[in-house]
Every structure is written in C-alpha cells, then in structure tokens.
C-alpha cells in the first residue's frame, strides 16, 4: 500500500512538472513565433511586390496600409487597435459579412494576451473586447471579375503550379472535383455523400472505404466523395474567402444538382462534420442518416465569445502534443502558416518522392497528397471561417438535428485523438440525445478510419441498412 501511495505521489509530481515545463516552453516559443510572424509580414510584402508587382493586405495590416488600391472592400474593426477585413474581388456577387470570423483579425500575441488576462484578474472591470462594425450586412461586390478560361488564373508564386493542384483551371466548369462510385443513375437506390476534414481530400475515403464496401453495398449505394473548395483537385480561387456559404454552394452545385441527389446519407470527418450539419440544416427532409467522425464541438461558456473560445480550444498554443503545436501555428500565424505551405505544398512532389524512397515504396501516399494539395489562402480562411467562425452556430444546427431531423445520428471518435478530444462527441450527444457515440480504443484523429477501413465499412453499411429498415 505504501509503495502504491508513493508511486501515486511521484506520478502526480511528474504530471505537475511536465505541465510547468510545457507551459514555460510554450510561453518562450510562441513569444518568439509572434516576433517571427511580424518579420515575415514585411518580408512577404517585399517579395510579393517584386514578384507580382503588388502586395495584398493581410489581416495584420492597418486600414491606412490596406487602402492602397481600388477594387477592394475594406471593413474596419474598431477597438484598442484598428484592424481590417479585406474582401478582394470576391468570386460571388454577394457576401454576407457575418460569415467572416473575427478570429481572422483578432489574434493577440501571447505576451499581450497574458498581460490582458492578468489585468482582468486584478481589476474589477470587464475586459475590453473589440467589436466588428457590421453584423449581417450584405455587401455587393461590383469589382469582382472572373477570369476567362482563355486566360486561366495564374497561381501565386508561393503556391504550387503543378497539373494536379491546378487541374481545375483548364476545366470549363467551376465545380468541385467529385469521385462517384456505384450503379448507374437509373439503378441508384440510395446516395451517400462523404465530406473530408481539414487539409485532406476525397482520397481519405476513396482509398480506404470505397474498395472495402461489400458487393451488395456497391450495387445498392452510390458513393460520392468530393474535394472541398480549395483542396485536392478542386478549384482554389485566390479571391475567395472560403466561407460556409461558398462551401455549401459548391457542394450543392457539384453534387446535389448534377447527380440529381434527392435524399442521401452523410459521412463526415472533423471539419467536414460542420459542413455536414450545415447541409443537413439546409436540407432537413433529405437526410437519411448522419455519421460524424470526431466532430469539433466545444460549447462556449456563458459570456465568452464562441469564435475566440473555439480558436483557443483547437489551437491552444502549446508545444505538446505535437498536433496541438501544428494546429496552433496554422491558426495563429498568418505568415508562418504561409511559409509552411510554401515549404510543404509547393514542394509536395518532392516530399512524395522522398517518402517513397525512405519507405522503399511500401506505403501509399494518398494522405500526403491530400495534406499538401491546397493553398495557404484556402487553408487559412477555411480554418478560421468554418472551424472558428461557425462556433456560435453549432448549437442552432444541433437543435435543428434534434427537433426537425428524424434520421439516425451516429458519432465515432478515437480515444487517443489529441486534436479533437472525445468530450466533443459527448457534447454533441448532450444536444442530440438520440445520437449514438462509439469511442474506438487506441485510435486517433486519422486512424479512426485509416487502418480500420474494413471494420468501418461494415459499420457504415449496418447504419445505412438500419436507417432505411
């Protein structure tokens, strides 16, 4: 008994020490990254100007710096320091500004964030919080001009220009890349739409699940997987802000309309769960079953801004675990994340070759391709406008699923998921009590599918069968 108690005390001491070391290292490293991102901001302005003859305003620009050229709509944000949201030649004729997340332009440096929180704790007043000067105003963009197909869009110098990443530029249709498998249209009994997660692609499904469905399922269901706007082989417009509306419009235009989908099952992973819920809310009478994998739902405490709370939960600015460190760099640092895309995405062909050499061609590289085939503009805006920007809407979406949808709701989550913790799935279940949560032991954010695709394919078939019986 004494040995057990002694070991328990040692373990507690180690946990406290580890947390202290993690917090200290995080403070030092992220303070350095704050400075690095500041320097990179000016470095990219110089390079953009010399390579492209102009520099585009970033979300750390001041209004005076940003208002240097016409053809742009600039929205000032009033607060302790003025920021801007820049709508540059939007691809759609109208854009609802409430779909632009405030996390794009309100991301305090770590030291200033700590300083403000300390002042709040010591003082008696409420913290000062910047506000967005417009709410649901619809702004019509009259300057947006689509490039003709005779003159396809030219990738930015920091983006990849290979045929895979830019295959959409030579197409006559501005639609998503869609991979469909199943019986011909006249014999289709049911449709299943697969929506991938952040910085991924349709290959997450087509290379894992599609080959492992049973012959009876392949003859009954039509499986439809898409590359989301800005990812994989889908369009990556540089003038898009990748809002929820744009993503949904593209799914409807690329899948529901051309494939004449009237009712369907949805299978979605991570960020895709948000789009799946929004799609279900928009088409409540068409959903036959809803299967969510690792849904990112963090209910914000009362009085706390949902978008900012979500950003801090998904990207906590900690060096450990590594996936949290990567998410933090991608979410908090506009110019560091652009540098990462420059090194990884622009050179994805090199990384693919190196992976094959190192592994002696023993592994398939579809995950690497999905991870690399996107632009910084697409990843940056999708992360903020979808994951963070919809945080305040999630409760309404789930209430609609609870009260208006009668479909089966099943949630899968890996017990070892360090990015989206298991509590998120139980948070969804608390809003939708009929949702069935299945926690998979010894699986994380990716291996919840990859590595157990055969078992997961059988589980999906069972869900679809029971939802129509």
TrEMBL record:
Query: Where does the signal peptide begin and end?
Result: none
Q: Domain of life of the organism in this record?
A: Eukaryota
Give the Gene Ontology MF terms in alphabetical order. hydrolase activity
Q: Where are the transmembrane segments?
A: none
Ranges for domain AB hydrolase-1:
192-298
One Pfam family it belongs to? Abhydrolase_1
Q: Which InterPro entries match?
A: AB_hydrolase_1, AB_hydrolase_fold
PANTHER family under this entry?
HYDROLASE, LYSOPHOSPHOLIPASE BODYGUARD 3-RELATED
| Designated name of the protein | AB hydrolase-1 domain-containing protein
What organism, scientifically named, is this protein from? Cinchona calisaya
